[in-house]
């Protein structure tokens, strides 16, 4: 029997990007989609606590079942694992996101949160994103070049607790220079809120901003790879400990001696 | 002039935990609070894109100004940095969270997302959490033992892009054994959705679950420290790259040669 592949995203079950992702992985296995009913961009790793979740089967055909879920991308993975799949998936793929999730954007990304959630279940997981925010983005190059990446993860697996952040530049398939395995570029979003006044005279703020690359000259980063026509793959570590800082901070434990002295 | 301290949380501007946090840091500087209007537990690093944000000044007195914001914890930090503070804060503190944010719970935590967002602005940032989910939790030991930690971060700073995840065990002040600088414990939440039927006969699911510690015998983790009566401090790294896996995957770039060969 072909391997089971769980598919989700953050742009919603009806987004063109997830249709492209199903097209990418369908030749590789049996596909189950559990994706949000609506767009969940910027939802990060949010989970739904205050309200219950709904799950709706929206399509079923040979080798493909599609469910929509009322929750976030992370909810979709949890609900799929608990209530939908009968066996552990051999692969989880998330996306294809409409827009970049390179560098620090991973922090805000629902697409990558779903992949990270999959990896917490021990499923080799990959988030795919295309550097084009538009609804009618052309995902054809991503389908072509993403399939061998997904196939290789299926074949080789990934260390437990890891997943991949894959981003595609906006280029025709034959103009893509290749694949670079990279580190996450250092940088941050610089916010500029747009202040407006509502009809009742009250202020409100729209989030805007632009990404600032803190190391444009580094050639081993995902930002560099994408700017230079490569597909970027960043392997993700779910251990967020800063070990260097941890060693430097060992003397902070002196506080404990003071406390113990007062006992 | 005393240093500027930015305060936020995810339980909302009216939560007892943030009042305790203000009490903790007020002796150390001028305090500006920008916190969510409502509870945002489990919101992770979500940002608000679809609707604009509102900002309301709810209190102003000597050395303390409090704003509520209609958005998420990450929104609060971004809006505070863009629209509220006139100088870069010397410290950001988030919490005190009602409930643990140890181990992998950091992934789902709005409290820690706010601290991580602060660190992306280059502000030394600390998230504080107490292992008691109840509304009327006793934060007095956290106030006593958290203050020297906050003071030390103010004094020494933290490497850019880093922040601290501080958790307090549920113990009286004089029963706390001390402070341990730890690594993030490996483990995951095991979900068990509770399925119910609504009055119209349709299924819905409530998220429940319990934390599974993958390494209960390891004595250098935050889970161990908390179980054994210590305050845990985990320094957080905002670079999520898995460098070990990155080296192992270098041969994946062979795909690129194949692509180049077809050009």
Automatic annotation (TrEMBL), chains A, B:
GO molecular function, one term: nucleotide binding
Superkingdom of origin: Bacteria
Keywords, ordered alphabetically: Cytoplasm, Hydrolase, Metal-binding, Nucleotide-binding
Gene: surE
Name listed for the protein in its UniProt record: 5'-nucleotidase SurE
Role played: Nucleotidase that shows phosphatase activity on nucleoside 5'-monophosphates.
Enzyme Commission code: 3.1.3.5
Pfam families hit by this protein: SurE
């Amino acid at each position: 029997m072909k391997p089971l592949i769980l598919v989700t995203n953050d742009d919603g079950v009806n987004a063109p990007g997830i249709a492209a992702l199903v097209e990418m992985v369908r030749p590789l296995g049996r596909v189950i989609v559990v994706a949000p009913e609506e767009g969940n961009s910027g939802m990060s790793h949010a989970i739904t606590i205050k309200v219950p979740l709904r799950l709706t089967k929206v399509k079923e055909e040979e080798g493909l079942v599609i469910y929509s879920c009322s929750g976030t991308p992370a909810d979709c993975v949890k609900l799929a694992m608990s209530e939908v799949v009968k066996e552990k998936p051999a692969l989880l793929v998330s996306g294809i996101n409409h827009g970049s999730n390179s560098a620090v954007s991973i922090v805000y990304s629902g697409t990558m949160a779903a992949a990270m959630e999959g990896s917490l279940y021990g499923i080799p997981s990959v988030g795919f994103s295309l550097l084009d925010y538009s609804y009618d983005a052309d995902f054809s190059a991503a389908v072509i070049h993403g399939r061998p990446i997904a196939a290789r993860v299926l074949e080789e697996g990934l260390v437990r607790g890891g997943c991949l952040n894959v981003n595609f530049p906006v280029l025709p398939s034959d103009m893509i220079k290749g694949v670079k395995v990279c580190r996450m570029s250092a940088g941050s979003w610089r916010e500029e809120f747009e202040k407006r006044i509502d009809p009742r005279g009250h202020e409100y703020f729209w989030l805007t901003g632009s990404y600032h690359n803190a190391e444009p000259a580094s050639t081993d980063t995902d930002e560099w790879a994408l700017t230079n026509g490569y597909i970027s793959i960043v392997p993700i570590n779910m251990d967020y400990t800063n070990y260097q800082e941890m060693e430097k901070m060992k003397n902070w434990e002196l506080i404990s001696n003071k406390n113990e002295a007062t006992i």
